[in-house]
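Minutes, methods subgroup
Present: GH (chair), OT, SY

1. OT presented the first of two proteins processed in the latest run. Sequence and structure tokens recorded below as shown on screen.
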Amino acid sequence: LSDHDTKVLNKVQRRAYQLDMSLFNCCGIRVGWSSVIAIIPESFSVGDVLDAFMALMVLRTCREVQGGLPKSVQAKMVFNIIMDFGVGLVPLIGDIVDVLFRANTRNAMVLKDYLHEKAKKEAR
């Protein structure tokens, strides 16, 4: 991987960890800011909208890789964000599934897989 792509990947992985797993451990399951924000009871889905916004910010960072991010990779990431948002709208059960789904972590893995495949192709 190039230095730039390594920095982007590290930044995305750090943000994903903060959003999905950084706050506390509950019954062996790590919980992060994304899950806590998603349960904001102020108004219908405000927390879920904030959660989706933060996930889109992670996606924006992913797009900073050299050569840009292919549309197919972006589509996988957007799908993860939409699933996370849609499931999060279901009261209580959605919040539990949201803790387990971890869209940001999934998107960090998608980026990592893409960058490793890209590096293999460039090495040939």
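2. SY then presented the second protein from the same run.
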Amino acid sequence: MSRLIFAFSLLSCLAVAAATGKGRGYSETLEANTQNTIPRKDKLTHIHFFFHDISTGPNPSAVNIVPQRSNSSTYFGMVYMIDDPLTMEPNLSSGIIGRAQGLYAPASQEEVALLQAMNLVFTEGEYKGSTLTVLGRNSIFAKVREMPVIGGSGAFRFVRGYVLARTYEFNKKTLITIVEYDVYVWH
């Protein structure tokens, strides 16, 4: 019986060693190449566009998915899902270059400040098929808001940068908001 236990223990140790491969555990060091690493010389890119947040009408691009559950003047607790068009100029008919897809939620009980999590999905131009991921605080009544770019895909793999957002127009009657975005990224 003791030989059986010894043999089982030995086989278990060999199986664990084979599964981890050369004792590296769950990670490995890769050689740098264009498929898996950032190029040695990054370039700084500035992208300028307008974000159209449309929460009314027959085809809204921002939909309330969690209603406000308190009497908060800051709308604390609401959540909106977005699929907002991005255009080259303030006019929606100026040409859609992509979509802002994600969500935002008022996350402050003291001021109207959003937690904004979104992917900027580029559908036209040089960056068609690439995305940028933005996650940050958007204090919507501030003249300029800065949010970090925390990731990306395609041409923006290994990206780092930030977004500057400025309200271009807010229509109280239609609840349509146009926000001018300046994105600066190293990639």
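Chair's summary of item 2: Strands lie at 44-54, 62-66, 79-87, 96-106, 113-122, 131-139, 145-153, 160-171, 176-186.
Next meeting: continue with the remaining queue.
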